[in-house]
Amino acid sequence: MKTKDERKRAILESFKNGLIVSCQAQPDDPIYSEEMPVKMAEAAKWAGAVGIRANSPEQIRAIHKAVDLPIIGLYKIWNENTDVFITPTLEAAIEVYEAGAEIVALDCTEQEINGRKAYELFPEVKKALPDAILFADVSNYREAKRAVEMGADIVGPTLYGYTKETKEIEMPDLREFAKMCRDLKDEAYVVMEGHIYTPEDAMKCIYLGAHAVVVGSAITRPHLTAKRFVDLLSGYQNDWRTDERRKH
């Protein structure tokens, strides 16, 4: 059953049929500056976005101060011995929430970190942060269903294309996403995130049942947008996705 908490439900319902813009910049990105994520968020609000997705306590705090839109927060932490990098610890989740993110995103895949599955962190975060809205980032239907059963408020295929089983994927699996919407929409809010590059792609997802759509690279990472063009014009000799997936 979807949350009955009136505060949480008001935030989640405000996303309906809307665009959430992922406003992130890493220190090794060519567009990086401390103020860049804030400018991205201000541009997204100007355009009519209903929410922001942001990375790291510092960037979340700055965006929260400048833009009055709900924030989906995460904390990307890369380690050499695991592919789990989205809010991989309880401490990271707490930092994200305390920085001003009403919604905390977690890796809820079956990837392993520190000898256990990533999704095993979810109950710990839910217990520690009962007032937070939890967004389960998954890579397939099976993981989505499990996350919803654990009590996720939002679920989305954010990590489709980032796990070992899906790493060669470029386009979204709309058939599987439609199944998520049909089967899980009464229990949680199903949001599309990942591999959405045009307004038409986003609208397809709304038509299939998405509560909202998150778009990042196509809007806020112009270096990757340019590289997609270069990749095609060079005959697919230099895969732009390698840069999108790299550890920072």
From TrEMBL:
The lineage of its organism: Bacteria, Bacillati, Bacillota, Clostridia, Lachnospirales. It catalyses: an N-acyl-D-glucosamine 6-phosphate = an N-acyl-D-mannosamine 6-phosphate. Its EC number is 5.1.3.9. Keywords: Carbohydrate metabolism, Isomerase. The keyword Isomerase applies. NCBIfam families: PRK01130.1 (NF002231). This is N-acylglucosamine-6-phosphate 2-epimerase. It is an enzyme of class 5 (isomerase). Converts N-acetylmannosamine-6-phosphate (ManNAc-6-P) to N-acetylglucosamine-6-phosphate (GlcNAc-6-P). Belongs to the NanE family. It comes from Mediterraneibacter hominis. Gene3D superfamilies: Aldolase class I. GO terms for molecular function: N-acylglucosamine-6-phosphate 2-epimerase activity. SUPFAM superfamilies: Ribulose-phoshate binding barrel (SSF51366). GO terms for cellular component: cytosol. The keyword DNA-binding does not apply. It holds the Pfam family NanE. Pathway: Amino-sugar metabolism; N-acetylneuraminate degradation; D-fructose 6-phosphate from N-acetylneuraminate: step 3/5. GO terms for biological process: N-acetylmannosamine catabolic process; N-acetylneuraminate catabolic process.
